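Hi support team,

I've been running sequence recovery on a batch of backbones for a student project. Most finish fine, but this one hangs at about 90% for roughly twenty minutes before it completes. I'm not sure whether the input is malformed or the queue is just slow. I've pasted the C-alpha cells below so you can try to reproduce it. Let me know if you need the job ID as well.

Thanks,
M.K.
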C-alpha cells in the first residue's frame, strides 16, 4: 500500500507500536489526544505516544476533534490505542487501519487485554481491521493468535501483541490492495476498567483472583484489604494449598515490595 504512513496513538500500547513502526517506515505524522491532567498535581501531561513521537522527531497533531480536510501527509493511517472516534467523512478520505490486541470479534472495546486475562482466556491475538464507525466492527485484513501463559500479566501480553502487530502490518502494507473479510461469531465487549474493577473480592476463587491481579499489572494495580490494611497487589499466585497468595504489594504512600517483607514489617 505505502511505505509512508501516519499513526494515530495515545496510550502506552500505541506508543510501543509507533516506535516499532518508526524503525521500518517513514512516519509522516502522529495523531494523538491533547495533553490531559495527570498525577496528584493534575498538571497537563503529554500522552505516551506524543512523548515517543517527539523523541523520534515526528510531527505531532493534537486536534480536539477530527474534521475532514486534516492533512496527514500519508495515504494510510494506522490507529492503535488512540481513544477518539474518527468521523465517517474523515474515514472516507484515506485508508484507516486499526490494530486491536484481541481475536475480534472477541473483546471489542477499550480494555481487551485486561478483559482477556480477567476471563482466564488461554489465548488471544492481534487483529488488523479497516476502521469503521461501529466500535471495532470493521472487516479483517489480518489476524493471528498466540498463547497466554498462566503467569503472563497485561504487560507481557501487550508486549507480545505489539511485536505481532508490526509483523501483521508488514503483511497488510506490502499488499497493493488488501483483502478484507467480515468478522465472524458473536462479539464480546471489553469495557473500560473502572474503580470497582480494581477492587478484589477475596471471596472469589483463588484462580480468578490471580487472573484479576495479572490483568491489572503492571500498569493499574488491583486493590484489597489484607490484615486490616489497604494494599495494591501487583503479583499473586495460587499457593500449594490452593489459596490466594499475594507476592508483590504496595502499601499506601510506599513503594512496591515483596508480600513477605510487608508482613515482617507488621510484626516489628
Amino acid at each position: 500500500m505505502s511505505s509512508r504512513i501516519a499513526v494515530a496513538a495515545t496510550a502506552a500500547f500505541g506508543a510501543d507500536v509507533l516506535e516499532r513502526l518508526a524503525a521500518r517506515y517513514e512516519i509522516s505524522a502522529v495523531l494523538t489526544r491533547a495533553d490531559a491532567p495527570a498525577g496528584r498535581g493534575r498538571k497537563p501531561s503529554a500522552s505516551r505516544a506524543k512523548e515517543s513521537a517527539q523523541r523520534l522527531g515526528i510531527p505531532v497533531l493534537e486536534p480536539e476533534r477530527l474534521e475532514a480536510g486534516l492533512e496527514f501527509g500519508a495515504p494510510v493511517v494506522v490507529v492503535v490505542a488512540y481513544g477518539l472516534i474518527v468521523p465517517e467523512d474523515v474515514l472516507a478520505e484515506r485508508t484507516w487501519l486499526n490494530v486491536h490486541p484481541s481475536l475480534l470479534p472477541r473483546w471489542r472495546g477499550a480494555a481487551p487485554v485486561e478483559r482477556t486475562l480477567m476471563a482466564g482466556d488461554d489465548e488471544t491475538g492481534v487483529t488488523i481491521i479497516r476502521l469503521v464507525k461501529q466500535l471495532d466492527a470493521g472487516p479483517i485484513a489480518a489476524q493471528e493468535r498466540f498463547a497466554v501463559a498462566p503467569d503472563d500479566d497485561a504487560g507481557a501480553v501487550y508486549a507480545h501483541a505489539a511485536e505481532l502487530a508490526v509483523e501483521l502490518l508488514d503483511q497488510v502494507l506490502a499488499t497493493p490492495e488488501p483483502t478484507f473479510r467480515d468478522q465472524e461469531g458473536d462479539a464480546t465487549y471489553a469495557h473500560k476498567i473502572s474503580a470497582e474493577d480494581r477492587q478484589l473480592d477475596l471471596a472469589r476463587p483463588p484462580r480468578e483472583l490471580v487472573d484479576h491481579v495479572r490483568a491489572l499489572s503492571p500498569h493499574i494495580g488491583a486493590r484489597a484489604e489484607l490484615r486490616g490494611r489497604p494494599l495494591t497487589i501487583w503479583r499473586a499466585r495460587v499457593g500449594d494449598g490452593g489459596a490466594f497468595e499475594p507476592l508483590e504489594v504496595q502499601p499506601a504512600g510506599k513503594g512496591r515490595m515483596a508480600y513477605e517483607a510487608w508482613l515482617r514489617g507488621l510484626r516489628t
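--
Follow-up from support: It reproduced on our side and the slowdown came from queue contention, not your input. The mean pLDDT is 95. No action needed from you.
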